[in-house]
């Protein structure tokens, strides 16, 4: 199960027992995310591993932008923009998985 932030859940669950018609259970990666979700506040600070993954993804995004010879996001075509997002998201998640397997 996946937490609302995209991380793997770790056994923190919640069900709205006050609503008899709501049959859905919600799962979270941490108690903090459960509390944030219930309060509808902002996301918590990233972990050390997530920061490492974001730095790596940023470097890969920079390489992609150099490859297409563009740095002004306003000039990106739709396809270039979507590719940039895929580079960032894909490399972030891939790096997090790589870091987790090192443990």
Structure report:
By secondary structure, the protein is mostly helical. It folds into two domains: 1-42, no CATH class; 48-102. 52% of the residues lie in helices and 8% in strands. It has three helices and two strands, in the order ββααα. The chain has helices at 31-39, 48-67, 78-102, and strands spanning 12-15, 25-28. Strands 1-2 form a two-stranded antiparallel sheet. The longest helix is centred in the last third of the chain and has 25 residues, at 78-102. The mean pLDDT is 83.
Task: Please provide the count of β strands.
Answer: 2
How many helical elements?
A: 3
Count of the separate structural domains: 2
The secondary structure category is mainly alpha
Uncertain residue ranges: none
Computed CA radius of gyration, to the nearest angstrom: 18 Å
- Strand residue percentage: 5-15%
Sheet with the most strands: spatial strand order = 1-2
Q: What distance separates the N and C termini?
A: 21 Å
């Amino acid at each position: 199960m996946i937490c609302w932030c995209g991380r793997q859940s770790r056994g923190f669950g919640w069900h709205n027992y006050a609503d008899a018609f709501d049959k859905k259970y919600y799962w979270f990666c941490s108690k903090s995310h459960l509390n944030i979700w219930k309060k509808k506040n902002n996301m918590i600070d990233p972990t050390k591993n997530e920061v490492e993954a974001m730095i790596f993804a940023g470097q890969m995004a920079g390489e992609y932008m150099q490859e297409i010879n563009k740095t002004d996001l306003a000039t990106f075509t739709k396809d270039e923009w979507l590719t940039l997002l895929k580079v960032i998201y894909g490399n972030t998640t891939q790096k997090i998985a790589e870091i987790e397997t090192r443990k």
